[in-house]
Design brief:
Low-confidence stretches: none
Mean pLDDT: 87
Distance between the termini: 24 Å
Number of helices: 5
Helix content: over 70%
Strand content: under 5%
Number of strands: 0
Largest sheet: none
Order of helices and strands: HHHHH
Structural class: mainly alpha
Radius of gyration: 18 Å
Length: 141
């Protein structure tokens, strides 16, 4: 696809908007339908589009599989850490009221935001890792 000028221009125009929409879904997800899972898929789709248009080699230079593995682990740690923090504060797993951030609604909002961030990071990185593993014909890094 190296000679597809229109495709390259359209992809360069669309990718920032896809990423912006993914961030909107991520950070507006605790207030409306959507959240971490949907945002992770949307953001990963921007990288998949980049890989399909500009080639796997360029995409793997933008974000490596090692970075994706680290992001997946970080997402799981954020999710589990939020739940464990509530346990350590004497409440149930993922009981956001344990955090006592301002009002009870503020605690709930911050807890949900942390969990959704962990889910979003994990879904984004695992989806992209799977795509890279199926695309990479040389067996990974």
């Amino acid at each position: 696809m190296k000679n597809q000028l229109v495709l390259h221009v359209v992809a360069k125009l669309l990718i920032p908007y896809i990423l912006l929409f993914g961030l909107y879904v991520q950070f507006h997800g605790e207030l409306s339908p959507g959240g971490g899972f949907q945002a992770g898929v949307i953001i990963a789709s921007a990288f998949i589009l980049y890989s399909l248009v500009f080639g796997f080699g360029k995409a793997s230079q933008v974000i490596t599989q090692r970075v994706l593995r680290s992001l997946a682990a970080m997402g799981v740690l954020i999710y589990a850490g939020t739940g464990l923090a509530a346990l350590l504060l004497g409440r149930s797993f993922l009981d956001y009221y344990a955090f006592r951030i301002g009002s009870p609604q503020g605690s709930q909002q911050w807890g949900i935001m942390a969990v959704e961030l962990g889910v979003g990071l994990t879904v984004f990185s695992v989806m992209l890792l799977l795509f890279f593993l199926f695309t990479d014909r040389e067996g990974g890094e």
